[in-house]
């Protein structure tokens, strides 16, 4: 799947996709979510929620897990689920927050342009 296909996915679909990738990575390495949490000193409940598709880890947590497991597929999956399309310029970019303020704009320049145009409209 290409990065642009992930842009149109809902948050639930992204959680489900990452959950399946995390489960595959754990199966490939023969460990459980609780074992992974213990090895990386993470909260076991968080890791289990990520594996169940209930919650999403931060991009930093995904990179930590992928690096620990030496799993490039998991790292790519994390990058894909955090991909967005800028509403100002249309560029596909990766943002670390799953939801949040200004999460639909790719850069400071686009935020400034957006603020400028919103002032003109009012």
How do the strands and helices of this protein lay out in sequence?
Blueprint: H1 3-7, H2 11-29, H3 33-40, H4 44-52, H5 59-69, H6 72-81, E1 83-85, E2 92-94, H7 108-121
Helix pairs in contact: 2-6, 3-4, 5-6
Helix/strand order, N-terminal first: HHHHHHEEH
Q: How would you describe the oligomerization state of the chains in this entry?
A: single chain
Mean pLDDT: 82
Structural class: mainly alpha
Strand order in the largest sheet? 1-2
- Rg estimate, integer Å: 17 Å
Q: What would you call the shape? A: elongated
Fraction in helix: 55-70%
Are there runs of 5+ residues with pLDDT below 50, and where?
none
Task: Tell me the fraction of residues in β-strands, as a range.
Answer: under 5%
The main β sheet shows up as: 2 strands, antiparallel
Distance linking N and C termini: 41 Å
Strand tally, please? 2
Number of discrete helical segments: 7
What labels describe this entry?
elongated; 122 residues; 2 strands; mainly alpha; single chain; 62% helix
Give an overview of the whole structure.
This protein has 122 residues and is mainly α. 62% of the residues lie in helices and 5% in strands. It contains 7 helices and 2 strands, in the order H-H-H-H-H-H-E-E-H. Strands 1-2 form a two-stranded antiparallel sheet. The protein starts with a helix and ends with a helix. The mean pLDDT is 82.
């Amino acid at each position: 799947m290409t990065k642009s296909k992930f842009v149109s996915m809902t948050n639930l679909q992204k959680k489900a996709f990452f959950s399946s990738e995390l489960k595959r990575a754990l199966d490939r390495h023969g460990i459980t979510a609780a074992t992974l949490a213990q090895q990386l000193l993470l909260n076991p409940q968080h890791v289990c929620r990520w594996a169940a598709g209930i919650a999403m880890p931060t991009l930093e947590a995904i990179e930590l897990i992928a690096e620990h497991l030496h799993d490039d597929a998991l790292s790519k999956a994390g990058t894909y689920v955090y991909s967005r399309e800028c509403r100002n310029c249309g560029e596909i970019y990766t943002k670390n927050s799953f939801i949040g303020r200004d999460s639909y704009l790719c850069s400071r320049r686009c935020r400034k342009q957006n603020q400028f145009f919103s002032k003109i409209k009012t």
